Amino acid sequence: MAILNIDGISLYHNVKGQGTPLVLIHPIVLTSFNFKYQVEELSSFFQVITFDIRGHGKSSVSNELITFPLIVEDIKKLLNHLGLEKAFIGGYSTGGSIVLELLRTSPEKALGGIIIGGYSEVNDLYLKQKISLGIKLAGVGAIPVLAWSMSKTNSDTKEMFKESVKEARKGNAKNIEQYFRYSLNYNCTNQLSQVHHPVLLVYGEKDKPFHHYAKMLNEKLPQNELLFIETVNHRIPTKAAGKLNRVIRDFIEQHT
């Protein structure tokens, strides 16, 4: 188990493979385990780097407020620790917002971005209600409920569900609530024109509530490619892993 100490915080991370580096950022409650299929397949072509955000999984609790800029700083320190100047930065769901934050504020650390079911702001009732519920549940310490729910929808086998729940239950309620709250109020839409890296946008064909976010990013990011994966909703990394891995591989090879 690889641990990086950042100002007293233990940041769990995993590195597999060689070649062009690819960092993957998980969403709230879930952990880096959610990228199991990406690590397994893409590490044959690239250096795949996953980590548990502070207060999640095997990483320790953060005394600092969980914000996207804080997570970006942790990613930069992780890259420096690994001796990497820059990498492709990918993120799933809320992790996609962190990708945008890094591309916008620390472009020198990125080769490009990969956003899987992500958004630059929360502006629809469906997502606002989901995040607000997460805030309430985390606020009363109901991490087992959140862990079970998110692991259930994001797992494709009983074995994956069992491991996902085990890791997600380790999350710290206070940090998870902070992550939820920050994501609810985050908005970088008006700054998207500042992102000049190539960005791959991947959404599920059945993930209708997120299609307007896909359109928004497609219209506002200067250099992007938008793809919809058939027969899948929001849970692309686990429910459409093969297709996702292929488009990620094609994108990275095209831009290196």
Question: Could you characterize what this model shows?
Answer:
It is a single chain. The protein is α/β, with parallel strands linked by helices and 256 residues long. The protein has helices at 36-42, 68-81, 94-105, 125-139, 143-154, 158-168, 173-185, 211-220, 236-239, 241-254; strands at 2-6, 9-16, 21-25, 47-51, 87-92, 110-116, 199-204, 224-229. Strands 1-2-4-3-5-6-7-8 form an 8-stranded mixed sheet, sandwiched between helices. The protein is globular.
Strand order of the largest sheet: 1-2-4-3-5-6-7-8
Question: Given the C-alpha coordinates, what overall shape results?
Answer: globular
Instruction: Give the averaged pLDDT, no decimals.
Output: 96
Main sheet record? 8 strands, mixed
> How much helix is in the residues?
40-55%
What is the number of E strands? 8
Give the number of helices. 10
Indicate the structural class: alpha/beta
Query: Distance between termini?
Result: 30 Å
| Oligomerization status of the protein chains | single chain
Q: Detail the poorly predicted runs.
A: none
Radius of gyration: 16 Å
Question: What's the SSE blueprint?
Answer:
Blueprint: E1 2-6, E2 9-16, E3 21-25, H1 36-42, E4 47-51, H2 68-81, E5 87-92, H3 94-105, E6 110-116, H4 125-139, H5 143-154, H6 158-168, H7 173-185, E7 199-204, H8 211-220, E8 224-229, H9 236-239, H10 241-254
Parallel strand pairs: 3-4, 3-5, 5-6, 6-7, 7-8
Antiparallel strand pairs: 1-2, 2-4
Helix pairs in contact: 1-10, 2-3, 4-7, 5-6
